[in-house]
Amino acid sequence: MVIYKAAVVGAGAMGSEIAQAISYAGVPVVFKDLNENLVQSGLKRIRQIYEGRVQKGKMTAEEVGTKIALIRPTTSYAEFKEVDLVIEAVFEEIEIKKTVFQELDRACPKSAILASNTSALSISQLGAGTTRPEKVIGMHFFYPAHVMKLVEIIPGLDTSEETVTDVTAFAETLRKLPIRVNECAGFLVNRLLMPYLNEAAYALQEGSAGLQEIDRAMVEFGFPMGPFTLVDTLGLEVCHSVVKTLLEEYGERMKPAEIWEHLQRKGRYGMKRGKGFYTYGEKIEADEEMRSLLQALSKKYPKQPFSAERMVFPMINEAALCLQEGISRASEIDLAMLTGIGFPQLKQGLLHFADQVGIDVILRQLEAWSLQMGGRFWPAPLLRRMAKANHLGLKTKKGFFTYS
What does the pLDDT read at residue 239? Predict the structure, then answer.
């Protein structure tokens, strides 16, 4: 099915950027939120994105006018009678999303695809509340959606292959890079990212290394920014929501470090609130409240050795579990890591890096850390099988990938 007209529900940052990407591709888009103020705020964000392109000489003012004319702002579902695809981008709360999907099910033509931009919640559950579960799918964009290329395409238990094909083609129309991810809590990128961010938080609260030291170490490893800068950029409330979903699904290995709850209670949500792990003013630094919190926490936990590998190896372990479960293929995992979170290009992707280090080396280190620090480091069975089969990576020409 060709998508001739789309809609976006939710005029926040993500919804606005998704609507901009759709209009930029030349597709008419209905743009809805609960009230006129929210819609106008979203349109302002869209205009700012286009104005940025004009200032860089990438578009003319006339071209921008043509693109913005494709956006139909509304506070009503009356405009949804002719849409082929709706992308929901409302608050990350399952009951709110279920309500929106039920409303869309009534308002849209029976042929319309209903997609959710959720970063972790169940697509199957959203589909079950509609009369068209075969046409319900996850379409997870990454922030900022008008810049980031990766889109996770997540079919639920009842989603048809035709729907997967149609949505994948539409993502390509938007000049995005769609990757199919079979449904699991957190999908692929967030499921792999959270052990990395969580381990940074554990190291910080132990006093194993400081805020800037950890951030600097991961930038030196090759990431575009450190883990705490990333959390402050994304917003703590987004990460908190994903962590809650992962903990419910995967249990102890996703148990969040204590510091997350303290930041949540203190309203330290990140850059947009002026303070998160860092305080954002004339200087970007840890303030007195943060220093006092870290000092108190460091007295509760034994200090463990810090290294970049301590942050990255849990991601490799989770990727191995994803392979076992058939969530994605090795090549797609590497592509998602490179394009979704900026895993270092020179290391060729998470699993290529694992092959370079050696599966046996990673397995021994995870086993040692699981004895020292607990079950969150318990190695995936696939890593043990690979080691026993001498699939050790580059040095044996066979690991997650085969080398000639």
Answer: 83
